[in-house]
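User: Here's a chain of 121 residues. Predict its fold as tokens.
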Amino acid sequence: EVQLQASGGGLVQAGGSLRLSCAASGFSFDDNAVGWYRQAPGKGREGVSCISLSDGLTFYKDFVKGRFAISKDNAKNTVYLQMNNLAPEDTAVYYCGADLRTLNCGGIGYWGKGTQVTVSS
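Assistant: Prediction complete.
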């Protein structure tokens, strides 16, 4: 069974950093992709970043380029999201999801429960 678990959220001050982890199981890290998404209060879910597990290619939304970095550790079946220079508008519940059909998170088919990130001013 495909399972994903996001962790590492917390309360940080503006300008601070946080590293999120997504522990995955139940699928191959060779032919799939994992993405990070977030949902702020009163808003819909939006994509943040994606990584292809086969070749390591990464994708970022413009609003996080230069601040966030996605990475993976195949041996640990874990995907990370390093978040730097956090701002209050980054406050949201962050989710990781797996795409078992494409390599660019175009078809997320499974979601883990989210982890809360709160950035104070």
